[in-house]
User: Which sequence fits this backbone?
């Protein structure tokens, strides 16, 4: 499998609107906690990255990438005002988002700053039209759907055909507290949310799981526990795939059960299928338009692929530089995009990352085949 680097950084930097912000960013070394997640490309070829505010001082949480002096820099998206920390109507902390077939960005705002409880109104789902550069809609995700203290809104997939979106809540927003993970279903027509599989065995971490990369414990000072993280929707929109981060199994459920808000929660829980072990921990996932599921391999350092037809998991691409591959996406030309973040090294205490290394954060691409796109373009 041929693959290549698209972009690389030793550390992130922004095109700031004024010198004072730049000075503050550098003086306080806020860049030491700035990690790019969720790389995606829109219909016009613009590349976006989210930078969650898991620590103070992140200049902008939603960004597009622009070139300055031959280097990739981040530009606040859609603008600096929309990224104003402390304004609950603006973007507070984004990790997961999707760009749909209509070139609209669905932005999932965690609402949390440095793991403090989300303020009422800060957790939200925002739809932004990338063609007109205008807000389409903003929907608050209330406490009863995603508890302000424990929620960790992670990722999202969109089904415009049936009028639903599906969100993972890893339930790890309160460090040192038991996980409260689950899946959130959004009905576009009624503009209502429903929480399902709350603290279900399939959405929680695997009991006693030992998370290691390169035979080293992830966050050795505090063993990592995180519930449902990766999420993907089949091209025919009938199957929702998901997996906890600190576990290796892949799960699936019929979306017809999730789209009917009258179906009892117990029935949904009893209808979960375990598809087997991926033999790796996984962060992000995405399905293509012909039925395959692509998933990140944290222990395997790369990307794997699951073929529903034969139920087989196998490695697609791997490289020792692909440390903590965070997300998977597709462009319009048959390439799969994914980014390596070294997140385990950035958030270890003390940090084990070498900030002088030029390839700490990398956006990769690999050619899959002509006509291959994301699930959003499936028939």
Assistant:
């Amino acid at each position: 499998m041929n693959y290549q680097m698209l972009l690389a950084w030793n550390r992130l930097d922004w095109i700031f609107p004024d010198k004072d912000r730049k000075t503050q960013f550098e003086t306080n070394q806020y860049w030491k906690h700035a990690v790019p997640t969720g790389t995606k490309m829109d219909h016009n070829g613009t590349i976006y990255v989210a930078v969650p505010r898991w620590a103070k001082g992140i200049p902008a949480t939603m960004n597009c990438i622009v070139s300055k002096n031959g280097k990739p820099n981040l530009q606040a998206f859609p603008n600096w005002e929309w990224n104003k920390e402390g304004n609950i109507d603006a973007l507070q902390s984004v990790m997961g988002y999707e760009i749909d077939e209509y070139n609209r960005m669905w932005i999932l705002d965690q609402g949390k700053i440095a793991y403090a409880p989300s303020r009422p109104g800060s957790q939200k789902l925002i739809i932004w039209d990338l063609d007109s550069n205008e807000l389409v809609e903003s929907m608050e995700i209330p406490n009863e759907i995603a508890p302000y203290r424990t929620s960790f809104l992670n990722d999202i997939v969109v089904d415009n055909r049936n009028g639903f979106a599906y969100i993972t809540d890893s339930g790890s927003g309160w460090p040192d507290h038991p996980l409260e993970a689950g899946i959130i279903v959004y009905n576009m027509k009624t503009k209502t949310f429903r929480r399902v599989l709350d603290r279900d065995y399939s959405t929680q971490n695997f009991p006693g799981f030992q998370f290691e990369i390169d035979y080293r414990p992830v966050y050795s000072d505090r063993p990592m526990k995180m519930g449902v993280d990766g999420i993907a929707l089949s091209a025919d929109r009938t199957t929702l795939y998901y997996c906890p981060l600190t576990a290796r199994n892949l799960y699936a459920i019929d979306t017809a059960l999730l789209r009917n808000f009258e179906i009892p929660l117990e029935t949904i829980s009893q209808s979960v299928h375990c598809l087997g072990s991926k033999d790796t921990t996984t962060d992000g996932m995405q399905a293509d338009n012909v039925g395959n599921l692509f998933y990140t391999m944290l222990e395997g350092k790369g990307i794997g692929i699951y073929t529903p037809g034969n139920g087989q998991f196998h490695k697609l691409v791997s490289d020792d530089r692909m440390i903590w591959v965070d997300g998977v996406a597709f462009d319009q030309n048959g390439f799969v995009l994914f980014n390596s973040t070294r997140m385990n090294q950035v958030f270890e205490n003390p940090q084990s990352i070498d900030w002088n290394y030029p390839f700490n954060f990398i956006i990769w691409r690999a050619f899959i085949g002509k006509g291959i796109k994301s699930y959003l373009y499936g028939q």
DSSP finds four helices and 26 strands in the chain. The CA atoms of residues 84 and 90 lie 6 Å apart. The helical segments are 19-27, 255-259, 265-270, 343-346.
